[in-house]
Amino acid sequence: DAKTTQPNSMESNEEEPVHLPCNHSTISGTDYIHWYRQLPSQGPEYVIHGLTSNVNNRMASLAIAEDRKSSTLILHRATLRDAAVYYCILRGFSGSARQLTFGSGTQLTVLP
Amino acid sequence: GAGVSQSPSNKVTEKGKDVELRCDPISGHTALYWYRQSLGQGLEFLIYFQGNSAPDKSGLPSDRFSAERTGGSVSTLTIQRTQQEDSAVYLCASSLGAGVTDTQYFGPGTRLTVL
User: Fold this and answer.
1) Nearest Cα to Cα of residue B93 among B115, B113, B77
2) B91 CA: distance to closest CA in chain A (Å)
């Protein structure tokens, strides 16, 4: 399965935008890029996913590089509630497509 | 609507005892997954159920672990002869289908402590 690389940790100030990067240089043409996050003492929750085009939803935006070897999750105005571990996950039609393969993620700290 | 629920929320057991962990998925979801998260570790896939198909057990760490899903709904994860290394948070997730764009919805988890 294609791997993802994320920074271990990032900090942001409250009410400022946050850009969380993910590298996936071995991504295949059919792999979707998914983001989940895990708030303290909770199960993971879905954030967003995309294939080639940038995506927006009520929680965040996903910017995908033209060559698809990297992507960035954008939180437009970070709140204290956004402090969580953010996971960038590839899901494709080959290999173990059904289950989610979590890496170590990025621990986001939001400063008041 | 109701999300994924798990019970118990916490379980403390003695080494060597058997434990059962329960997962109630979202109604109508055909796919159900079990994961575990050990202290300071990432989430590790255990087992996957999809409809009436045979489960994918490829993530189970040993034959002491088993799971069943009755009537395509509730699932039980059983750990026999628990060991201290089994201590972890066990998470259940369900999704409408098993496609690559199907969102997985996670329960709050069961924290298992083996003394």
Assistant:
1) B77
2) 7
